[in-house]
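Hello, quick one for you while I still have it in my head. A protein chain has come my way and I'm curious about its shape. I'm sending you its amino acid sequence along with the backbone structure tokens. I'd be grateful if you could look everything over and explain what you see. Here's the protein in full, and shout if anything looks odd to you:
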Amino acid sequence: MALKASELRIGNYVSKGDEIIKVDSIDEVGINLYAWHTGGEWGSSGHIEPDFNHLDILGIPITEEWLLRFGFQDPSDSHGEYLSLTYRGQTLFSTDVSTAFKYVIYTQHKAIGELEIHYVHELQNLYFALKGIELTLTDKTN
């Protein structure tokens, strides 16, 4: 299913086929905009075009690999069954590796809710909504 502009934020990761794309600009037509203009004797006209149309981009399914790239770790007592993301020593999210879609959200070391998300950009948006900072990759491959 194609993504809507309202689902995305600058910095989100999406895909077009096998290509991973980091969103750097958004409008109602697409993402990663560029401007061009034509000049002439009578003046110039210009357009802003997207590199990628919203109909062509898709969410990236969350996998264990993506969770690890975002800094999720195996808590010492989970034996590989859970991955969790901590911020300043407090667990923010944890997920059962076998399901990888249900995330328990924590505040002050207490579970406050469970949320089902399927795509990398949804996880990035939730993290920003909770912490006010971007969820960034911990590796150098994008």
